[in-house]
Each structure stands twice: as C-alpha cells, then as structure tokens.
Design goal:
eight-stranded antiparallel β-sheet, PH-domain like, 3 domains
Amino acid sequence: MPYLDRQNRICGFLDIEENETCGKFLRRYFILDTQANCLLWYMDNPQNLAIGAGAVGSLQLTYISKVSIATPKQKPKTPFCFVINALSQRYFLQASDQKDLQDWVEALNRASKITVPKGGSLPPAAEIVKPPVLPQAQERKPPVAYKTEIIGGVVVHTPISINQNGGHGGEGSDLAAHPLLRRSQSYIPTSAAKPPAGPPVLKSGYCVKQGNVRKSWKRRYFVLDEFSISYYKCEQDKEPLRSILLKDVCKTHECLVKSGDLLMRDNLFEIITSSRTFYIQ
C-alpha cells in the first residue's frame, strides 16, 4: 500500500518485471519523487540499506506517456498488474491488491501529467519588469501627447515631446524624456523572448510530438499562423525546430485508427504532408 514519507514522497513495495517479456518479477521498494521529477526503485527501503546504497533503477516522469492497468492479453497470469509506457519501452509492475493497484496508477498518472499553460495567462514573474519609480517633481509634469502605432500587430503608444522651437523632438529626445513605451492594456504578452513579428498568431500552446527517427515523444511549443504551423523546443526559443507550410498540408484530422505505441495515446491527431505524417498529442 503506497504511503507518504516525511519528505511527502509516495513510497511502497511493488514487483517489477526484470526485463520486458521475461515474466520474472522482482520485489523492489519504489519512491515517487515529484520534486526530483523521477520514479526510483531500491532493493529495499533505503533506511534498511547500507549508507551510500543507491537506487537500482530510475525513470524520469517526463518520459512517461501513460500508466494503465495491464490487459489479460498482456499479462494473463499476473494479477493486479499495470504498465508504464515511457518512450519506446514498457515497464510491467505488480501490486499487492486491487486498491494498491489503483492507488499507484492514479499517483503515477497524476505525477506525470503534462500541464499546458492556459492561453492569455500572465508571463512568469522573471519576465515582468516593473517601471522605475519617478520622483514627484517629474510626476507633476503636464500630460504628454502620444503617437499610436500598430507594430507587428501590437498597439504601441510612443510619447511625443515638443522642443523649444515648437517642433516635434527626434527619437533621441523622446527616449531621453520618456524612457518607457506604454502598451495598450488590452495586450498581454505571451513571452518576453519572442517579440511580436510576422503574421498574427492564431493559436499557440504545448503539445507532445512523435519524433521522425527514434519515434520518441517530446513536449514541444506549437505556434499556428496564417501560413504555417511551427514547433519550438520551448516557448522562449526564437527559432523554431521546424515549420510546416499550410500549403504543403494534405489533410489534418483526429487519429482514430491506432496501432502499436499510438494505442496508448489519447487526444491524438495527425498532420499529413506529401513527405511525412506528424503525430501530435
């Protein structure tokens, strides 16, 4: 039966198959450490082991795509068995009873769940720059006129200063008097690393994509605009790993007919081009 230790980690004994399809299960002590983003297993409770004895196995939680109860076809002679799908490998584990089985499956699925940031959410705290506090003498200056422009689909208000000759000051004088540009309050930046440029973004967010060569699944940040769909290693990257032109896309639809590793994937769709089919979850 899994329990929480003093470090708020889920722990307990399970039997794990030594090698996939070998049918030999070994008793191991498991620790689900969400802070370290990994599942560890030991020969015994680490408190009973010699000092310095490490884990005999580990698995990164980000590699786990799905945890489910094993079907009778997969393990017909192993009761209370469940399977962890990670990259191209499967781990079969056996619990002590039905409740133990359900608790471990739910805990592992919850710990490995991919959290996708909601659209329109505020940027991370590190990206929020507070404007400098102006002295009271400067705050009492008369109102300044602003020039409104649309740059890259963003409404930008640029302060316009008037020089002593009555003309409009140049760019240097504008920035000297007013070092900040004010953005429209209706605009919320999605990332400080990617200034708005090019065609407007129709939709963006994180998905999990299957690789073309190794067939491994990795989390990528997708951006869809009027001309292409691109994916990045992370939201802060400026250059995409790849861009797919929409004119090259033959068909896009939900993937209903699945086989192999795709059977374990929910919310799966495919983008079909003349040269390749992209599977995206």
